[in-house]
Here is the input.
Amino acid sequence: MKAIIITQPGGPEVLRLAEVPDPVGGPEDLIVRVRATALNRADILQRMGGYPQPGPKPAHDIPGLEFAGEVVAVGERVEGFAVGERVMGLLAGGGYAELVVTHHRLAMKVPESLSWAQAGATPEVFITAHDALLQCGMTAGDTVLIHAAGSGVGVAAIQIAKMLGAGMVLGTAGSGEKLERARAIGLDVGINYRTQDFAEEVVRATGGRGADVILDVIGADYWERNMRALALKGRMVIVGLMGGNSTTANIGVLLQKRAQVRGTTLRARPLEEKALATRAFEKSVLPHMASGRIRVVVDREFPLAEAAGAHEYMAANANFGKVVLAVG
Here is the structure.
């Protein structure tokens, strides 16, 4: 099969289309012919040598945390899936390829209403956003602040928060255009982090109360402002570190606000935990995607062979929603 391999740590130019052996499945696995996969920030980190695939080192370093495609082989102990069915799901790596192998508990059937590009853009960000909001104990009526509102996780989180009954959803982005597009999918208050202090804007918009829940993908650079923006008994979950992982913090504010801060990642979790997150998403969110209430926003689609160009595009932070690779 053909796949994109990382030839050595570096920039987008280290991504190369190559012929590699087909994957071999076990008795509980599906082998899937990939029709679409999508970019995630973890792919860029992996390409640069900073985020290797968990587990034993693979023979070829192939990025890609999600897939959508057709089942071509079913393990002898698999039930509920058949050859030819459209499926999508999470991967620890290897998605930039014509074929992938996945444990059947991480696979979901693709609703007829979703295109291949939309299905390939779904698993990583939507499961991450849903799982993160659940970890925060988000309930109906909560005020929710979502950073990087134009990112894949941000676009998913805005819609899921609304589905869960959020009283107000606030979001940050670096351009007015992204904020306007986010309003079209449910954002109530948009904050341009380039021109506004988001903590001040959150406090103002909530009448001094602050946000009950913060979903953060930035990390260190936003810590102090997140603490100012957080409400009494507020909960924050950090799912990314685009703004660094080290900061000097006044932890006294956690006591004063009786706040909770959690960190989470999806990729390195054991099978059981990822399977539970997948099933929770499949039950609660996927029906709303099938009906069109929740939208999968695909910003741009590249052929698999142009993965390097897709990485350059994503690194420029120009996208609203997901950047997809079409396969085959």
